[in-house]
Amino acid sequence: VWEDCLRFIKSQVQEQSYKTWFEPIKPLGLNETTITIQVPSQFFYEYLEEHYVHLLRECVQNELGPEGKLEYSVIVDSGSVQNQPYMVTLPNQNQNQNGKSWGKEVVEPEMVNPFKMPSLDKDSRYSNLNPNYYFDNYIEGDCNRLARSAGIAVAEKPGITSFNPLMIYGGVGLGKTHLVQAIGNKVSEQRKDNFVLYVSSEKFTTQFTDAIRNNSIQSFTNFYLQVDTLIIDDVQFFSGKEKTQEMFFHIFNHLHQNGKQIIMSSDRAPRDLKGLQDRLLSRFKWGLTADLQMPDFETRMAIIMRKMQSDGIYIPDDVVEYLAYSVDTNVRELEGVLISLIAHATLNKTDIDLELAKQTLKNIVHDIESEVGVDYIQKTVGEFFQISVEDLKDKTRKKEIVIARQVSMYLCKEYTNHSLKSIGYHFGGRDHSTVIHAVQSVSDMMDVDSKFSNSIDELKKKMKMKLV
Ligand code: ADP
Ligand code: MG
């Protein structure tokens, strides 16, 4: 039976996730209503619960019928005194401990179909907000300063600031949903009577199409016109959907005229939103548009450390640095790497160290160069001294460039297998004596100039991280 479950799961999740999260599970037992599985750790169990509860329930119930339950046996970490597995049972209803397990579904941002709601009084107002997204755990950096502070301003005085609508845009995984949800959470926390609604554009579109089909446009609009703070995520999804845009335009105008707050997010700047009607785009300009960028190195460090703190895990400094340095695509990916790393450490019952981090990253991030070569050194040194790679290879005799060039040669000597001749060749065809001279000057300078010496150490650290 568990085999069947696995087959089903395999067809539903990515291979990497399957390997990480499902292969290590051991089936322990089965009776008419319950499958018992063994998982390697508490963390593992929580992760499954958090991310795969729907899938697990679905496959267990496929196998055992609607009464089907899943029982976990958790192996206690070998580090602790106890070594006996302990059991956690997950009933198929929501009556479980602390809202964990299957019951989690209730708080998941699953939109209640508004016009099927029995009544729209305060109690039945369903905000669709995820309580894990708030400002305190939204790390500030140059990448998001304007958007974040505008968000806070809006959250404090929804509908009153000139940031209406507030439009947040940025690439995938850069924190749009987190930010707009944080605004929503803050508003509803501070103003119980403010009806906050978070909805993705996709959901809005589906609700609208359903409403057309069911002849319930009236209740659809009535519902939306009652909202005090409307958060629409990923409006790029409206592109090309004329009817939906018309409806949104109508709701937007009505809310805006009545001093209600509107917050939107999009994966690109409004001017690049193809397929959106101009009249809608021009409305977006009424308020404030702020973008999110990829966090810089320091902010990435802070994000990782914040995550460690809230998850109660410890990761050595050099690993934190390594991750922050290596994962420069987006924050979601950074979190993904972190989670995998913890999972690997838990599974292998090892400590988290650089080697494991490197290993983990190799499996996940594909485009990370895994070798220190001349190119890498030139690029890294160039970035460090803010000098182009061309200049490093060129004949320029400007002092800063000469120094950067010598540093690059020095690092090439130290970290690659290139001969002096070959190193010289990579720097605009200089001869080997120039390289010897460069190496000598750099070590001399390190002896007398501690600031310079620190810079070299920093660069060396980057090289070492790559070499692990
Ligand atoms: P988007 O909606 O732009 O695709 P998300 O809001 O889903 O991105 O963010 C992806 C993940 O990264 C989330 O888990 C979010 O909490 C996290 N994240 C993004 N930016 C930050 C930040 N500045 N501080 C802390 N966590 C962040
Ligand atoms: Mg999002």
From TrEMBL:
Gene Ontology terms for molecular function: ATP binding; DNA replication origin binding; lipid binding
InterPro entries: AAA+_ATPase, Chromosome_initiator_DnaA, Chromosome_initiator_DnaA-like, Chromosome_initiator_DnaA_CS, DnaA_C, DnaA_dom, DnaA_N_dom, DnaA_N_sf
Region (Domain IV, binds dsDNA): 346-468
Localization of this protein: Cytoplasm
Chief subcellular location: cytoplasm
GO BP, one annotated term: regulation of DNA replication
Keyword Nucleotide-binding: yes
Any one annotated GO CC term: cytoplasm
Pfam families: Bac_DnaA, Bac_DnaA_C, DnaA_N
Record's keyword terms, sorted: ATP-binding, Cytoplasm, DNA replication, DNA-binding, Lipid-binding, Nucleotide-binding
TM ranges: none
Domain Chromosomal replication initiator DnaA C-terminal: 373-442
Residues annotated to bind ATP: 173, 175-177
Family: Belongs to the DnaA family.
Biological role stated in the UniProt entry: Plays an essential role in the initiation and regulation of chromosomal replication. ATP-DnaA binds to the origin of replication (oriC) to initiate formation of the DNA replication initiation complex once per cell cycle. Binds the DnaA box (a 9 base pair repeat at the origin) and separates the double-stranded (ds)DNA. Forms a right-handed helical filament on oriC DNA; dsDNA binds to the exterior of the filament while single-stranded (ss)DNA is stabiized in the filament's interior.
The record's note on its domains: Domain I is involved in oligomerization and binding regulators, domain II is flexibile and of varying length in different bacteria, domain III forms the AAA+ region, while domain IV binds dsDNA.
NCBIfam families according to UniProt: DnaA
Subunit structure: Oligomerizes as a right-handed, spiral filament on DNA at oriC.
Entry protein name: Chromosomal replication initiator protein DnaA
Lineage of origin: Bacteria, Pseudomonadati, Bacteroidota, Cytophagia, Cytophagales
Encoding gene (name): dnaA
